[in-house]
């Protein structure tokens, strides 16, 4: 069992993620600017978290946790201070608190700008992908965190299937419950550390996919931005 801090705890993905983390036997501290909107479950503590705050304040709120999930998103309204630098401050805070494990919700091809114009769904969220590009790069190059970056295709508010395809490929979609399940179950598999996990809807059970991720590809040799 881990004590998990969820950044962006009142969001769409976070709600399902928190359910899955608790079901997996974890204790959850969920942070949001609107803690009253965080799902109420046994084993879940809601706290007020403002990503505009200083890093030291964020570190105090996260202190005592074993894992950090970043699933916050401003939905285009506050990209710099939430999606980009807000994420960076939580990474700094995790290192300040000696929290080693960090799991980031990102976006398909966020580290490959050359791909954005090839898919309308990505072209429509270019500013978001720019924010994630810098946040993901900081996580990889400027921290020593045991990190995993999950990069789903477009999110849809549909029932989960429990099935995925991992890796790059044609731009498709992901039901939010499946994204949340991949995020939650990533914590169960240490082999996911160091991975950038691209995910799309597919036909492989999530547990099977995550238990066979293989060795991480060296970042600079993965066709990604340096």
From TrEMBL:
Where in this chain does the record put each NAD(P)-binding domain? 8-188
Q: Which InterPro entries match?
A: NAD(P)-bd_dom, NAD(P)-bd_dom_sf
* Domain of life, source organism: Bacteria
Pfam families noted in UniProt: NAD_binding_10
Stored PANTHER family: FLAVIN REDUCTASE-RELATED, UPF0659 PROTEIN YMR090W
**What is this protein identified as?**
NAD(P)H-binding protein
